[in-house]
Each structure stands twice: as C-alpha cells, then as structure tokens.
Amino acid sequence: xxxxxxxxxxxxxxxxxxxxxxxxxxxxxxxxxxxxxxxxxxxxxxxxxxxxxxxxxxxxxxxxxxxxxxxxxxxxxxxxxxxxxxxxxxxxxxxxxxxxxxxxxxxxxxxxxxxxxxxxxxxxxxxxxxxxxxxxxxxxxxxxxxxxxxxxxxxxxxxxxxxxxxxxxxxxxxxxxxxxxxxxxxxxxxxxxxxxxxxxxxxxxxxxxxxxxxxxxxxxxxxxxxxxxxxxxxxxxxxxxxxxxxxxxxxxxxxxxxxxxxxxxxxxxxxxxxxxxxxxxx
Length: 282
Description:
Blueprint: E1 6-17, E2 20-32, E3 36-40, H1 47-55, E4 63-65, E5 68-71, E6 74-75, H2 81-90, E7 92-95, H3 99-102, H4 109-121, H5 125-138, H6 144-147, H7 157-169, E8 175-179, H8 187-204, E9 207-212, H9 215-221, E10 224-229, E11 232-238, H10 248-255, H11 276-279
Parallel strand pairs: 3-9, 3-10, 7-8, 8-9
Antiparallel strand pairs: 1-2, 1-4, 1-5, 5-6, 10-11
Helix pairs in contact: 4-5, 4-7, 5-7, 7-8
C-alpha cells in the first residue's frame, strides 16, 4: 500500500507486574488506507489495547514502543500531549461500546456535539448548532430539534450510539476506531447503526478500524480482518475469506460459533497451541 493513512510497525505494549513487565501487545504491524479494517479475537487478545495505543490513551505506567506509529506520516509516538489533544477527536475519533458511560450525563446531547465541533473546527456557536442539527439528521435521528435538548439517560441504546457517532464524526476525522460499537444493541438496531457508521465514514473519506468479537459481523462489514491472540496477529485476510481461514486459531474461532441450521448439545471450545506465541518472534 502506498502512502497509507495509518502505519503501525512492531507496536509493543507492556504493563508493570510483580515479575517485571507483562506483554499486552507483542509486536503487531499493519497498515490502513481509506477502508474498513476489522480486528477480532477473544477477550484479552489485545484488540482494544491496540486501538487505545494508537490514540495514546493507555495508562501512564504502560510501556509503549514501536518502530513506526504514524498517521498520514505524522509520528504519533513522538507527539506531545498538547498535539495529541488536537489529534484526538480532530484527526482520530474513537466510538466506544456504551454511550451511557461515554457521554457526559450532565450535558445535553446538543451541547456535547457542539462542543466537539467547536474544539476542533473553531466555528461560531451558531455555525456549530447548524452543523450539529445537520449531523443528527445524517445519523438518521428523527426530530433532531427535540433530541438536542435531551440528556444521555433519556436516550435509547440505539439513539445513544447514533449520538456518539455524530459527536465523534462532526469534526471530520480521517481515522475512526470503533470499539465494540454494537455489542450492547439488539440485532435489528445493530444493523441500523452499522449502516449509519458505514455511510458517514464513506461520505467523509475516512478509514475505519472495527474492533469486535463478532466474526460474522466483521466478515459482512469489513474489507480486511486481523485475527489476534495473546497480543499478536495470528492471521490477516480479506473479510469475505474469514470462513476459509488457514491459521488453526481462526479455524477454531469459526468452529466455536453456534450453528443456525441445527441444535448442538455442546459448543466446540478452541484448543490452544503455545507455539502460536513463539513462532512470530523466532
């Protein structure tokens, strides 16, 4: 890929423990263009850590190193905290799992979206309000004039996630990281939210990283997939080829999915091979 939007090379994250440092990411590398990249794996595989490392949102005690961590050529690891405050939200946005905890409970929906716009775009209050109402319409919220005055606790799960998408995308970031954005929603609403997210990302010409444990969802929604286990990338493949994966771990994940066409007494539990975590470092 020439001139990628995001370049990650040999990214490592470790946390202090009783026996020194414990690795959370063990040297992952990938690039991202203006496409939809899925990162899948079980809990603890390092998917969310990777997203937060790109945003520089890990705890201060975390040890983060990389041969390269660049956004459109800009060195994210070498950036000052002041520079990162402009980058977060302005050039990189993160959509979290549950808007009930991500949104400020003391501010109305409209105030929060307008604040996101004015921090990064520096527009007037009237301009921010007009853009906020247009953005609520863009994420398919009916009656945005009414919704703008609501507080987060007055929103349904689906509406809250639409508000979160509007707030994150109103500054027109070039990279969107969505960390389990639909896991708290029912199937019908989940599809609607993904449609909205896809529509807005494509309209803004942004790249998207979708972090998920849902293999069928990622297979349908993304262009490429990274499969992670133990802080390493086990396999990278086209999303539509996820069911024909070659790595034993990805095959095991696919086999553990409950079948829809017949009942089973017991789901298959993946079996792990310790060499998976040593082969990549040899």
